[in-house]
Design a protein that fits this description.
With 360 residues, the protein is an all-alpha fold. The protein is built from 14 helices and no strands.
Length: 360
């Protein structure tokens, strides 16, 4: 590690900090509003969360991962104890981080299929899911330093951030960390070009990275092959909601292992990243506007009587080309998700020690 990395960093002016805090608060209040609607006006809440916010998120993660890392309402919730001086600020070991990353990707694979059986149609259930994740985020935030335990560990979205945020081109300050305390040896926020396989130091890291890259595109495809079920469902429906995503992830995992013999890791990761996000919008955009595989599922507004279907087809083709250009073919900029703030004095020696340990 170059010495200047331990001496220089980015500082936000008081005015910039105030602006970011206002934006973070507004986004957090939007999250509260969504939860309120999920409980008291579930139809509206489901549209706001599952049919507006979630469809926007993958695109945002691709083009501006750092912006999302700065304004994510769950991150603001997890970091509230740290901002208020209530965190015990404990450091996580490399092995512990690997285990948290593995739990995060497994949680993603377990929770997302349940949308078909529960969350897509039940506002109360979705609200309790968000509140439960928020509770966990606060608990780990009370114990561990900055973003280490939640934002870069347990959060089920974090594996997707690392998969989609390969080609960052937007320079943004770190709107949460005022100083870098080296809470992670390999911080995803400040590491240019970070990807799910960047760290292979432990078995947990290796498995989590492989599942995120190799399995995720097939998992996305499989998820869209399943309809939503309303009311009480039986064991056969539960098997169905997991069968297709698991089948898809097994196929693309095998394909990843085969292609790994012929392609460099970075190229292969980029291709699988573009494939995953393209697959998502290939199915999700038509469903939003009435042309889904299962009519009515995940529909925001029915445009089938307003627009010809070819308009949506052209749109998804253009978006697919954009993602492959952005992730696979565009030049790799040496820009991290956010600009690292200056190292805290107590973090300098810790940073050197952790860096050396991580590269032994």
């Amino acid at each position: 590690m170059a010495n200047h990395n331990l001496k220089t960093g980015d500082h936000l002016s008081p005015k910039s900090i105030l602006i970011w805090r206002i934006v973070q608060t507004l986004v957090w209040l939007v999250g509260v509003l969504i939860i309120f609607n999920l409980i008291f006006y579930p139809t509206l809440g489901i549209h706001l969360f599952w049919n507006i916010l979630i469809p926007i998120a993958p695109l945002l993660l691709v083009v501006a991962t750092g912006l999302w890392r700065n304004i994510c309402p769950m991150a603001s919730t997890a970091l509230f104890p740290r901002h208020m001086g209530l965190s015990k600020r404990k450091k996580l070991t490399l092995a512990e981080i690997g285990k948290l990353n593995l739990i995060a990707i497994i949680a993603l694979f377990v929770l997302v299929p349940l949308r078909h059986a529960i969350f897509n149609l039940d506002g109360w259930a979705t609200a309790w899911l968000i509140l439960s994740l928020g509770f966990i985020a606060v608990i780990v935030g009370l114990r561990y330093e900055w973003k280490s335990a939640w934002c870069s560990g347990l959060c089920p979205v974090h594996p997707v951030e690392k998969l989609y945020g390969l080609k960052n081109k937007l320079r943004l300050p770190n709107a949460h960390c005022d100083q870098c305390h080296r809470c992670l040896a390999l911080c995803p926020d400040k590491t240019p070009g970070i990807h799910p396989l960047s760290s292979k130091k432990t078995t947990s890291h290796k498995i989590a990275g492989f599942l995120t890259v190799g399995a995720f595109p097939g998992f996305v495809w499989g998820w869209f092959q399943v309809p939503d079920y309303s009311g009480i469902i039986g064991i056969s429906e539960l098997i169905t909601i997991y069968k297709f995503p698991l089948l898809g992830l097994l196929v693309t995992s095998a394909l990843f292992l085969v292609l790994k013999r012929f392609l460099k890791d970075k190229t292969l990761i980029a291709i699988f990243s573009a494939a995953a996000v393209s697959c998502y919008y290939w199915f999700r955009l038509p469903a939003l506007f009435g042309w889904g595989l299962f009519p009515g599922d995940g529909m925001l507004v029915d445009l089938t009587g307003v627009l010809p279907e070819w308009v949506i087809t052209v749109l998804v083709v253009v978006i697919t080309f954009f993602f492959f250009w952005w992730i696979v073919f565009s030049r790799q900029g040496k820009i991290s998700w956010v600009i690292r703030p200056a190292y805290a004095l107590e973090g300098v020696n810790f940073g050197k020690n952790m860096y050396n340990k991580d590269n032994e």
